Amino acid sequence: MISDLMRNQEKVRERYSSIQSTDRVFTSAIVFGEVYFGLRRLPQGKRREVLFLQAEAVFANLVIQPISKEIAGVFAEVKCACEQVGIGVENNDCWIAATARSLQATLVSRDTDMLRVPGLTVVDWSA
Prior knowledge:
Layout: H1 2-6, H2 10-17, E1 26-28, H3 29-41, H4 46-60, E2 63-65, H5 69-84, H6 91-102, E3 107-108, E4 122-123
Parallel strand pairs: 1-2, 3-4
């Protein structure tokens, strides 16, 4: 959803704008790293500069949740649970899922792999 916010995707922006002041909204340090990795891979130029500015604007309004010992423990649970039922989920996705699960949060994502992670609540704001 971060990419959708950066692109100012209407449905996602509307949902994000409707968040109540009492709601906790954050993103994982893993998501932050993935976004900036993708941007750094782009060739130097105006497009890259604009995308960096858009990313900075989105992340400025979010708490970046670091990986804690508790999240690392939940990562192990998530990874094992996925393996036991034959679900192949990439490590970064497991870290993101573990962050959401450890904080008992709903994950906002359009990544359909996340729907298969046991015990994870996922919503897609672009749907």
